[in-house]
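Posted in: Structural Biology > Protein-Ligand Complexes

Title: Requesting predicted complex, adenosine monophosphate in pocket

I'd be grateful if someone could produce the 3D structure tokens for the following input. Sequence and ligand are given below.
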Amino acid sequence: MPTLEERLRKTIRIIPDFPKPGIQFKDITPILLDPVLVRDCVEALAEPFQNKQVTHVVGIESRGFLLGPMIAQKLQVPFVIVRKEGKLPYKTVSVSYQLEYGYATIEMHSDVLKAMDRVLIHDDLVALGGTAGAAAQLVQQLGGEVVGFAFIIELVHLKGRQKLHEITSENTIVHSLIQY
Ligand code: AMP
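-- Reply #1 --
Done. Output follows.
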């Protein structure tokens, strides 16, 4: 029986030079075609957080919205969305962060978390850690604590893990199912 990591390595499709030259885009959409693999990914993403008193799962637009609600269901906690600037209709908190070229801003509704909430942040992939790090700062702005991060994919050479530890703490769990 192949391991989950072996099954993921076979399933994730790598598209060279998308969306621009030099990027090896990791396409996770084939995972969604396999319901057994989806179930196993959700269980493996949630597993390290089962006994960590997580109160909310935060998913990052847009690929963090695919498995995020299922992780929240598995942990039996609410699911909260983080979106790009200007998309959320109610009062928001926002954080800007640096991209390769320029800046991006992400937002969260300001009434979804309160002080002392214990949050798990989920996205499909961590590269430099800028996006997930900014989501962590949104949680911190509302007084929440980031218990950890769960990614399907980690691009190890870009050292996002270190960046996320700097923004949160050394004890914060950074969990990924497959590393490239
Ligand atoms: P970063 O902020 O550098 O950690 O980038 C993470 C965000 O960009 C995630 O939302 C990913 O979905 C996306 N991303 C970055 N690099 C890739 C890649 N090589 N393949 C697919 N998505 C990527």
